[in-house]
Amino acid sequence: MAVLKITVGFGTRLEAIKMAPVISQLQDLEEFRPCVVLTAKHGSMLDQVFDILHIEPDYDLNIMQPGQSLTEITRRALVGLEEPRRSESPDMALVQGDTTTAFVGGLAAFYHQTPIGHIEAGLRTRDKYNPYTKEVNRHFLDVLAY
């Protein structure tokens, strides 16, 4: 039986909490090998979540810098995701929510022709500036995901 490699990417504490049950299920099934990719700085509040939920990131990209723009966050995340994609050659990428991390994780997977699973995107407003940038990230991921 082939083992499917699944990258699970997130950057916030809330995303980690929401993805923990998915990661746990993937770890419990022998046909899957999850690879956890963290984009944000590995801070103390996120460390506490990892300890409680027994999550250990395989990659910590640590992209956050003081005062950076959304463009810079997007650029740093996209560049940072190259190494995990090349090293892991995942069969699927899972992203959660409507953050820039979720969008960029989906975009990076798309660039590598990796199927994308989008888990929970939030309520739709149909106003691309409210909430900014979350509503547009939801739409972008709709187009990219399977």
Would you give an account of this structure?
The protein has 146 residues and is α/β, with parallel strands linked by helices. The protein has one domain (4-144): Rossmann fold (3-Layer(aba) Sandwich), CATH 3.40.50.2000. The protein is 46% helix and 17% strand. It has helices at residues 13-28, 44-53, 70-80, 82-88, 100-111, 134-144, and strands at 4-10, 32-38, 59-60, 92-96, 116-119. The mean pLDDT is 93.
Number of strands: 5
- Number of separate helices: 6
Percentage of residues in DSSP E strands: 15-25%
Distance between the termini: 23 Å
**Helix amount, in percent?**
40-55%
CATH class: Alpha Beta
Helix and strand run = EHEHEHHEHEH
**Uncertain residue ranges:** none
> Biggest sheet, strands in spatial order?
3-2-1-4-5
Global morphology: globular
Strand count, sense and barrel status of the largest sheet are:
5 strands, parallel
**At CATH's second level, what is the architecture?**
3-Layer(aba) Sandwich
Backbone structural class: alpha/beta
Give the oligomer, counting copies of the same chain as homo and different chains as hetero.
single chain
Indicate the mean pLDDT.
Answer: 93
